[in-house]
């Protein structure tokens, strides 16, 4: 049976895309796995790494649903009015327009984030 860490290693090895700093949130970096062009605009997918003590501050995606699969680490997430604990293997669904944030725990957190439709 494949574990969450095996999935993460496989995802990292499948793409030569570099980690890029998030344009708005310090301590957050992203690695593109699937882009709009390769999915005909249906979805985009990224590995998202949030360093310990850093956060994806409150934001929303007006026209996109988002899924978070927690690969490594832990975090506290705020999805609308709900507070969630993120841990490896946890999956969260975020509806279009829902304000959300993710604050990494002591070891940071790595997510597989999927958007539908794709980010432009």
Defining traits:
globular, 52% strand, mainly beta, eight-stranded antiparallel beta sheet, 8 strands, 120 residues
Model description:
The protein is mainly β and 120 residues long. It has one helix spanning 4-14, and strands at residues 20-21, 28-34, 44-50, 55-59, 65-79, 82-86, 91-94, 100-116. The longest helix is centred in the first third of the chain and has 11 residues, at 4-14. The radius of gyration is 13 Å and the shape is globular. The model has no long low-confidence stretch (mean pLDDT 90).
The beta-strand count equals 8
Radius of gyration: 13 Å
Give the helix proportion (percent range).
under 10%
What is the average of the pLDDT values?
Answer: 90
Strand coverage percent: over 45%
Largest sheet geometry? 8 strands, antiparallel
Order of helices and strands: HEEEEEEEE
Low-confidence stretches: none
Shape: globular
Distance between the termini: 35 Å
Class of secondary structure makeup:
mainly beta
Number of helices: 1
């Amino acid at each position: 049976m494949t574990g969450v860490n095996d999935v993460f290693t496989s995802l990292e090895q499948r793409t030569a895309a570099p980690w890029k700093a998030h344009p708005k949130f310090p301590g957050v970096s992203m690695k593109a796995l699937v882009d709009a062009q390769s999915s005909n605009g249906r979805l985009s997918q990224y590995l998202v790494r949030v360093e310990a003590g850093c956060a994806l501050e409150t934001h929303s995606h007006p026209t996109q649903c988002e899924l978070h699969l927690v690969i490594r680490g832990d975090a506290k997430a705020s999805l609308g009015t709900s507070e969630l604990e993120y841990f490896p293997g946890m999956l969260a669904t975020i509806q279009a327009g829902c304000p959300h944030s993710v604050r990494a725990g002591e070891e940071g957190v790595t997510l597989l984030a999927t958007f539908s439709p794709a980010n432009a």
